From TrEMBL:
The keyword Cytoplasm does not apply. It comes from Macrostomum lignano. Residues 824-1061 form the PPM-type phosphatase domain. This is PPM-type phosphatase domain-containing protein. GO terms for cellular component: cytoplasm.
Length: 1061
């Protein structure tokens, strides 16, 4: 009866909510949690959430004050917790429902009615916001930085706690707080500041308490002593270490960052000699803000900080400040001030009072100008103004240029510098205009030639087409990546670093010869030749020239007397290397995807320090013999440092193996897709240090028994051969990955393989191999067997599935010439060692109806939790959207948004990229492909004449519009291309703590498939990072079977990894 009554109540509640929503588009709901609600985790049940909260009907015009009246709480009690763990008190006239709707719109919910219905949902509190009727008793940030527990407490000096009493105690980064009762709701409390204090263990003699801590610190009225009693040593030791960390700090330093403060603790002002104060990531009030929120304290407003007269370092970043109190400008001793990541629109003119200020961090605010009074800051040497709203360089910087020689203004809206201002800025030595709106061509100029003292110039991510810096003789560092440069002139007299990646340069014009050049990156341009003097630069250490149209390299690069360590020249049209290679110091040489048909005789002996050599996808038919043997019969004795060698996709035969046997230190050897027919015992015995061996795509009929002697071997790939029998891999204790797929002649039982210590086993497309569940019932293993039937369907046999950890995943949907099913699907994965990626794959065909199929790849980067959850959640979420009557495009979109919410706490700080493909039959001979992607997992449609991208690469470096969106919502893009320094994707599933900078809204594309469409490729970031769209399309066209095509793509991609040591 009670269950039936509960169901009736739920049904009535849903009906009432539906009526409220239908009555007005402004109506909706928010879920309000009790202030003493327990901290809910990802595994909390729905019932626990319901018990700790209530659903409140309101409108988008209902203010926080009005809601407090509805809830019968104090008018300033409503608080909001955002996914990054920060809690703030709502302004009296803020409208909570409007805030919630705005955040849902930022996620990607564009339909007003759908947004209304989401209000009562339990999961939106994990990815949007939680509202509390009062300041929450506990929160995630508190748990990370504090200890809490019910302890027996006594005051050492008598008074309030003259006898032992059980109280709620908290230990923060600077103080121990004892509440009046057993919870924080009691309100009144006693705090002891730990700076200048002490902590010691007291055993016995204290009322029979065996485990006690004696704490001395500063209370409201002076020195205070507390005794805390614990049940056991373990808890006491944890508190002791936490307290001693605080008491060991000098009384000149206080760190109150991420403490959810609205005011500065009154006890802190007892530290009159305080030198450094960190208040980062709080919600500190000025007096005016406190009055509007009805918060009153005697001491602790921002204006009161001027009492710290000896303060030299003050950090107020990330406090949602809209202004900088002028009273702070009376801190005469201040040397460093950080007000970054606030909402400050103007700096007060009184800042001139900070006469000793040397460093001012004011980035990520709303500044559009600077006061002229800043010219009085004669000690200021570093001023950071990145990611503000400047339209021009502030004129006051000209007056400061004699002592402040840096202009750090990336992420603003600067388009030019006036000629008059350029003349006044001549003393400037460093300029950073990254991510502005500079557009220079042959008819426009920025007057940069006026900066004769300039040594550092960063112009990345602008719209520059032409640039003449031939007069800047002192320029040492120049960066102009990701522009539209077709013409560039540089003065090489002082140059040390030049970064020109991703432009349109056909030649390098640097005069005079850059004798001091150490780093050159001209990759992804249109270079057809290099300056001859490049081989004469003795100080050049790192040279990147990949993805150009080069046919040769300067001979001098391979001679002695050079400091060159890394030469990256893959993806060009290089047909030969210089014949003379002599005692060269190169350690990393990458020449993949070129036209090399032979190597110079001295390529190995002349590169004695070489550790990594990549020659994948060339035209090599043989390898030169290292020095030591004059004839082919002589033994080869060669001391080489080479540890990683990639020779896949060439035309090498068995003769190459004898040469390779001389490289005894090899850890990684890739020989996939050559013409090798046999692995000799001599070859196997010589490579005892080998950890990864790839001999896939050759003509091998067997793997020799001597292979078992490779005791260090971890990865063995031998797919796409003609193998007929296998050695006993149980005798290889370190082997973890074994890929034997696409060996159609392979026979035998899989039992022995399952009993090996593998964590990844691929036997796909081995139809003659006996796989019987009866044989496996007594086997205990962690391996996963992937099998592919002749019809192309993928199955998995697993007795205990391990976490999905892979370095790359590629799924290929391939249109067969004639088959019962209209498409065949193939999957290939590759485990990683140091560069480990965590991938999960969804492959359902038919699904969810007989005339459709669903495929997905989720890439978690370095976490396997989120991809695994997404794999389990997506199918059901997609089916729910289809049942609601949505088409494929809308269903994919809202299914992705739904699983983003359903990640709950798992997706707060972790995230994953995803690409999903839905194939749907529209008529007897017409199929439709719908693709949705989020992050850096992508999809490619391979047509007979060209490839067609069906996805969008959501990274800040590659998508200028997305980078601009991040800046507009208050975020930053750091120099390494990461959003707020954390995530390289601007859209991802999960990573809720970066909202609204990182959102899950996907790109959705729908195309009608025609007879000219051959294949569809879904792949993770680790694949697209190394293989271009054209290269992927070319490889797929050569393969008839989709599984073989996917494996071929994986082998093509997995050739540029860190050396495995």
């Amino acid at each position: 009866p009670h269950h039936h009554q509960h169901q009736q109540q739920q049904q009535q509640t849903k009906q009432d909510q539906a009526k409220w929503i239908a009555a007005d588009a402004k109506n909706g709901f928010i879920r309000v949690y009790r202030r003493d609600a327990p901290q809910l985790s990802a595994v909390s049940s729905a019932a626990a959430v319901v018990r700790a909260s209530s659903v409140v009907a309101c409108t988008t015009e209902t203010t926080a004050v009005r809601l407090c009246q509805q809830l019968s709480v104090h008018s300033n009690a409503l608080h909001m917790e955002t996914p990054d763990g920060r809690i703030r008190r709502l302004d009296p006239f803020e409208c909570p429902l409007a805030l919630q709707n705005s955040m849902l719109a930022e996620l990607g919910y564009s339909e007003a009615r759908r947004v209304q219905k989401l209000g009562p949902a339990i999961d939106i509190g994990f990815c949007v916001a939680k509202f509390y009727a009062g300041r929450p008793v506990s929160c995630r940030t508190f748990a990370r930085h504090n200890l809490q527990g019910l302890l027996e407490v006594r005051s050492g000096g008598g008074g309030l706690l003259a006898k032992w009493e059980k109280r709620l105690c908290e230990c923060g980064p600077t103080a121990v707080t004892v509440y009046k009762g057993t919870d924080r709701l009691a309100g009144d409390h006693t705090s002891v500041l730990l700076a200048r204090g002490s902590c010691q263990t007291v055993r016995g003699g204290k009322g029979g308490r065996e485990h006690c801590l004696q704490i001395r610190g500063i209370g409201r009225s002076g020195e205070k002593e507390l005794l805390l009693a614990f049940k056991d040593d373990v808890v006491m030791e944890r508190w002791r270490k936490h307290i001693e960390k605080s008491t060991s700090q000098q009384d000149q330093t206080a760190d109150l960052s991420e403490s959810q403060l609205e005011t500065v603790p009154e006890q802190l002002f007892a530290l009159t000699q305080l030198r450094s104060l960190n208040l980062k990531r709080n919600c500190l009030f000025t007096k005016a803000m406190a009055e509007s929120h009805q918060v009153r304290v005697k001491l602790g407003y921002l204006e009161d900080l001027h009492r710290f007269r000896h303060l030299t370092v003050l950090n107020l970043s990330a406090n949602r400040l809209t202004e900088l109190p002028s009273s702070l400008c009376f801190l005469k001793s201040l040397v460093e001030l950080n007000i970054a990541t606030n909402q400050i629109a103007a700096i007060p003119s009184e800042i001139s009072g900070l006469t000793k200020l040397e460093i001012l961090h004011a980035h990520n605010n709303r500044l559009a100008s600077l006061p002229d009074s800043m010219s009085a800051l004669t000690h200021l040497s570093m001023l950071v103004l990145a990611f503000n709203h400047f339209l021009e360089v502030p004129p006051v910087l000209a007056a400061m240029s004699r002592w402040c020689e840096n202009i750090v203004m990336p992420g603003n809206r600067i388009s030019s510098i006036s000629e008059r201002l350029a003349d006044r800025l001549k003393p400037i030595r460093r300029i950073n205009f990254r991510m502005n709106q500079i557009s220079l061509n042959g008819t426009s100029s920025m007057k940069l030639d006026r900066f004769q003292h300039l040594a550092y110039l960063d112009l990345r991510d602008n719209l520059i087409e032409s640039l003449d810096l031939g007069d800047l003789a002192l320029l040492e560092f120049f960066c102009c990546e990701r522009n539209r440069l077709a013409e560039l002139k540089l003065n090489g007299r002082s140059l040390k670093s030049v970064l020109l990646e991703d432009n349109r340069l056909a030649s390098l014009d640097i005069e005079p010869q850059p004798e001091y050049l150490e780093y050159l990156d001209a990759s992804h341009n249109r270079l057809t030749q290099l300056p001859a003097y490049l081989g004469e630069l003795k100080r050049l250490v790192h040279c990147r020239l990949s993805h150009n149209f080069l046919t040769e390299l300067p001979p001098g690069l391979f001679l002695d007397g050079r400091q060159l360590k890394a030469l990256i020249a893959g993806h060009n049209a290089i047909h030969s290397l210089p014949d003379e290679i002599r005692d060269c110091g190169i350690e990393e040489l990458q020449l993949q995807h070129n036209w090399l048909s032979r190597l110079p005789d001295a390529v190995f002996s002349g590169l004695p320090r070489l550790r990594l050599l990549n020659l994948t996808r060339n035209r090599l038919t043989s390898l030169p013999r290292p020095e030591g043997g004059q004839t082919s019969a002589d033994p080869i004795e060669f001391n080489s440092r080479l540890q990683e060698l990639s020779l896949s996709f060439n035309h090498l035969d068995n003769s190459a193996l004898r040469v390779l046997a001389s490289f005894h230190r090899l850890r990684v050897l890739r020989l996939a897709f050559n013409q090798i027919t046999e692995l000799t015992d001599e070859f196997i015995r010589s490579l005892s240090f080998l950890q990864e061996l790839n001999v896939s795509g050759n003509q091998l009929r067997q793997l020799p028994a001597s292979l078992l002697m490779m005791e260090r071997l971890i990865v063995l790939k031998a797919h796409s051969n003609m193998l007929q029998e296998l050695p006993n891999f149980r005798e290889m204790p370190e082997l973890r990955m074994l890929d034997l797929g696409c060996n159609q002649l392979l026979t035998g039982s899989v039992r022995d393989l399952m009993e090996a210590r593998l964590s990844f086993l691929d036997l796909s497309c081995n139809d003659k191999m006996g796989i019987s569940m009866q044989d496996l019932t007594t086997v205990t293993t962690k391996s996963t067997i992937k099998t592919v039937s002749s019809a192309g369907g993928i199955q998995s046999l697993s007795l205990q599935r391990p976490p999905a950890a892979a370095a790359g995943a590629v799924a290929v949907a391939h249109r067969p010439a004639a088959a019962a099913l209209p498409f065949h699907a193939g999957l290939a994965e590759s485990t990683g060692s140091r560069n480990r990626m965590c991938i999960s794959v969804l492959n359902k065909m038919p699904y969810p109806t007989p005339d459709s199929g669903l495929f997905a790849v989720f890439d978690g980067g370095r976490n396997s939790t989120v991809p695994g959850l997404l794999q389990r959640l997506f199918g059901r979420a997609y089916w729910e959207q289809l049942k609601a009557g949505l088409g494929e495009q809308a269903a994919l979109r809202y299914a992705l948004l739904a699983i983003h919410r359903r990640l709950l706490g798992h997706g707060r700080r972790l995230g994953a990229s995803g690409v999903i493909l839905c194939l749907k039959r529209r008529s007897a001979d017409r199929w439709e492909a719908t693709v949705a992607n989020c992050g850096n997992a992508e999809a490619l449609l391979v047509q007979r004449d060209r490839p067609m991208r069906l996805s969008r690469l959501f990274t800040a470096q590659c998508d200028r519009d997305e980078a601009e969106r991040v800046v507009q919502v208050g975020g930053m893009v750091t120099e390494d291309g990461r959003v707020n320094g954390s995530c390289d994707c601007t859209r991802q599933l999960g990573c809720a703590y970066l909202h609204p900078c990182v959102v899950p809204e996907p790109q959705v594309t729908q195309v009608n498939l025609t007879e000219t469409d051959d294949s569809l490729i879904l792949a993770s970031r680790s694949f697209w990072s190394f293989v271009s769209y054209d290269e992927a399309a070319e490889e797929v066209r050569e393969a008839e079977q989709p599984v073989a095509a996917a494996k071929r793509l994986i082998d093509l991609a997995q050739v540029v990894y860190d050396i495995i040591l």
